[in-house]
Amino acid sequence: MRIRRAGLLTRRAFLDAALRGAAGAAFLVDGGGARVAAQASPAGRLIVHSARPQDLETPAHLLTSWITPNELFYVRSHFYTPAIRDDMWRLHVDGAIDNPVTLTLENLRRMSPSTLPVTLECAGNGRGYFNPPVAGVQWGKGAVGNARWTGVRLADVLRSAGVQPSARFLWLDGADTGPGQAPDFIRSVPLDKALRGDTLLAYEMNGERLAPAHGFPLRAIVPGWEGAYSVKWLTRITVSERDHAGPFVSTAYRIPRSPVAPGTVVDAAQTIPIQGLLVKSIISSPAAGAALPRGRATTISGFAWSGEQDIARVDVSVDNGRAWMPATLDGERARYAWRQWTLRWVPDELGSHVLVSRATNAQGRTQPIEPSWNPGGYLWDAVDRVRVDVQPA
Amino acid sequence: MRIRRAGLLTRRAFLDAALRGAAGAAFLVDGGGARVAAQASPAGRLIVHSARPQDLETPAHLLTSWITPNELFYVRSHFYTPAIRDDMWRLHVDGAIDNPVTLTLENLRRMSPSTLPVTLECAGNGRGYFNPPVAGVQWGKGAVGNARWTGVRLADVLRSAGVQPSARFLWLDGADTGPGQAPDFIRSVPLDKALRGDTLLAYEMNGERLAPAHGFPLRAIVPGWEGAYSVKWLTRITVSERDHAGPFVSTAYRIPRSPVAPGTVVDAAQTIPIQGLLVKSIISSPAAGAALPRGRATTISGFAWSGEQDIARVDVSVDNGRAWMPATLDGERARYAWRQWTLRWVPDELGSHVLVSRATNAQGRTQPIEPSWNPGGYLWDAVDRVRVDVQPA
C-alpha cells in the first residue's frame, strides 16, 4: 500500500481527500513517535460508497491478479476507522476459558506464524443489483479480493487459554465504535470454525503491516465465510456458551430460512446466519462497455470462488447466455482463495454482446440465473454479465 | 367462440363491455340480414391492453392446450376493427400480375382448401419486460397462440393471377384504417415466402368462421413469421417489384442490423425487417405466484416454438436456473406450430423458487439469458421465468 505520512488532518480534509481519492493510508505521528492509525483511505481508484465510515469498492476491471494489491482491496467499515497506537493496543481473551489473557502485538508476533491466501467477500457484494432494491451499501460486484494473510492461528491462542467444555461461540469485538447510541460491532463465530487451524488472527496483509482500513493492528480471518466474520481492529475475544445477542449477530448478516419472494418482509425468527460464501464468479476483463475490434483475439478473464469449497469449472458465454465454453482455470490455487480464469475469444459478430460467466464448485453446485432476493440484500450470486461492443477492426 | 347477438351498441357500450370482458364477439344485424362484424371483444378472460383498438393478451396460465381456443387467442390491432359485411367484401389482387382479379368470399370457398396449424406470435410479445422500457403495447408473454387455419393457398391465387417475373414483394392491405391522418396498415411479404404452399389466405380459425377480432372475413397466414405479416381483414394484395414504403414496413417491425446496447437510438437505415420468429419457450403452468405443496407431484408445462424451425428440446430448471432437466415434448406437432411440453416435479424445498424454461431448436440455437434490447421492443426471447412458492403440505 502507498503510504502517505501526514500531519494532523481535519475530518473535513480526510473526507475531501477520500472523495478525491488522494489520501492513501494516513498515519498520524504522535509526539512519542509511535504510529497511530487514523481515518484513512486507500488509493483513489476505488469506488467510494461512503467516505466515513469507509466503504470502498474495487472497480472489477482493476481486479487483474490472483493476489489483490492492498491498495486495491475493498474496504467495508460499519463505523469510523479507530485511531490505534500499536504500542497501546491489547487483545483481551476472556469468557469461558481457564486462563484469561491479555496479549500485546509483540506477544502475537513471537508466536508461530501462519500465512494463508484467503478471498474475502462482503456479504452485501452485489446488493445494488437486487430488485426491488434493498437498503444498505449499494455494492456492485467488487466488494471481493484475495490476499495473503499472515498471523497466528486462533486455535493456538485458544488452546493456551484453555477453552471450557461448555463453550460454543467466540465473540469478536473490534475497536471501532458507532456514533451516539450505536451498538458495538461484535460478531460471533461458532467455536468449531474458530478451532480449525486455518482461522487466523492476522497482522499482515500481503507481507505488509495491516493498513488502518483493513484492521490495523489485528484482524480475524475466518476463511471461506462472509467478510464480516473477519473482524477488524480486534481488541477482545470472548468465549461463550451462547451466541451473541447484539444486532450484528441477531439481525444483520442473516438470510431467510427458506427463500422468499422479492419484497417479502421476513421476521428475524425466520432467519439464519450467513456462514460460507456461495459459488460465484465475476468477469473482470473486458470492462463493462468495452469496445472490442472484430476479428482480433481478446482474453476474457475473471475470478471464481465458493467459500470453503473448491471451484470445479467456469463456463463462459459470449452470446448473451446461449452457448457456453469452458474457461481455463489458472494454476494458482489455495483452499480458501478464488481461482483466476481466462478464455480466449475472437469476436466475429458486430454489435452489443453480453458476456456471461458461470462457476460450478466441486460439489456440482452452480450459479443461478435468478438470485435469492432477501431483505438484507446479501449473497448476490447470479451468473455475472458484462456487456461489450464489437466494432469494425 | 361464444357469439352474442347484439343490437346496435354505442361505442361506449362496446368499450364498457370490452373492459368488463363481457362483450364476446358481436355481430350487428343489418336490415338485409347480412352479418356485419363490428367492434367486438373476445371473452373476458383476456388482458385488455387497449380496448379500442383491441389489444388483448392471453394470460399465460390459460394456455393449456396445443390448440388455443378462439375465445382465448390474443388479439393485436393497430386500428379499429372494421365492420365488414361478408356479402359486400371483395379481395382485389393487382399490381405486377397478368390477370388482375377481384374475388368474393364465395370464390375463395370454392377453391381447394388447405388447413394448417400455425402458431402466431406478436413481434412485440414480451415488450413489457425490456429494460429500459420501450414504447408500445406492454405485452407480457401471452401474445402468442396456436390455431388451425383453413383457407386457400396464397400460391394458388397468385398462380392464376400470373405473377410477372420482375415481382419481388406482395403488399397486404387490410380494411382497417387509422383515425385522422394515420397511415394505412400495409405489410410487405417477400414473394418467395408468399409462394410457398403453406402461406394461406384463411377464412376459418379452428373450424369456425374468423371472428371480427381475428380478421373476418379473410386473414393472411404467413407461417413462422412474426404475427404482423398475417394481415387481418384483407382486402387487397398488390404484387410489386419494390418493398412497400409505408411506416409499417419501413419503420415498424424492424430491428437493428447488429445488436445494440439497451437505450441506443438506432437510425432506420441501420435496421432490418423482422421475419422468422426466434426460438422461445414459455411456462404456462404453474401460474406465476402459485402455491405448491411440498412433497406432492405437480406438472410444469408450457410451449416452445421457433418460427420456421423445429423444436429439438426444452430444458427446465426448478432452482432459479442452476440445474436443468429435459422436459417431455408432447406428440402433437406440425411444422409451424409450437410444441407443448411437460415436466413432473415433486417440490422438496420450502420457499420461493424460480422455474426457468429454455428451448433449443433443431439448428442448436437456444434461448439467451439476456435478450437483445431494441428500440421497438421486439422479439423478447429470454428464458422464461415463473416464481412459485412451495408451502408445507
Helix percent band of chain A: under 10%
Tell me the overall shape of chain A.
globular
CA radius of gyration of chain A is 21 Å
- What oligomeric state do these chains adopt? homodimer
User: Strand sequence of the main sheet of chain A, in spatial order?
Assistant: 9-8-17-12-13
What's the β-strand tally of chain A? 28
Structural category of chain A is mainly beta
- Individual helix count of chain A: 5
N-C termini distance of chain A:
39 Å
Low-confidence segments of chain A, given as residue ranges, are 1-41
Amount of beta strand of chain A: 35-45%
Report on the structure:
The structure is a homodimer. In chain A, the strands form 7 sheets. In chain A, strands 9-8-17-12-13 form a 5-stranded mixed sheet. In chain A, strands 10, 11, 14, 15 and 16 form a 5-stranded antiparallel sheet that branches. The first copy, chain A, has about 400 residues and is mainly β. The radius of gyration of chain A is 21 Å and the shape is globular. The first copy, chain A, contains 5 helices and 28 strands.
